[in-house]
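Final report, closing paragraph on structural work. Over the funding period we assembled a curated collection of sequence-structure pairs, and we close with a single example.
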Amino acid sequence: MSRTAKIDRQTNETDISLELNLDGSGTGEIQTGVGFFDHMLELLTRHAVIDLKVKASGDLDVDQHHTVEDVGICFGQAIKEALGDKVGIRRYGHFTLPMEETLVTTAIDLSGRYFMVFAADFPSQKIGDFDSELVEDFWQATAANALCNLHVVLHHGRNSHHVSEAIFKSAARSLRMAVENDPRTTGVPSTKGTLNG
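Its predicted structure, as stored:
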């Protein structure tokens, strides 16, 4: 069965169309108007081995926050929709990723409940013209709308670009593991019998 989703979101601040295939090949078509964010989403696509199309236009004359957060909302909603009843998935995923001087660990539980811990302080407030705090905003919006637990831990890192890249790659690898079909699992991987709340 196809594990895909298409989310459209229009507000006074953003207009977003997002398509997701959890069983893709790592192909991305990303256009958000925010160059660094596009780069991070391309990394996410490749390392999660998903297909992701994002077309977003936002009030970038104000700042980048609404665009980044709303793409996170749509991405989280798409994950939740594409997973359906979550029968047969691994549910949990984790990955520790080195990025030169940076080391990041992420862990995901597709539990149907939201909780996030983001223990990563960026060395600088800006990565080019991108606000580094938006990395947390994106993943918080994603986790809240996917209804998952997400933990992000920065062990060490000096370069904010590397920190962001390591977070996106590590989270992508964790997501890849969590959504994989587990051949040893029958039904939903929970004693409650559901992972939807």
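Residues 160-179 form the longest helix (20 residues). The two ends are 23 Å apart (CA to CA). We thank the funder for supporting this effort.
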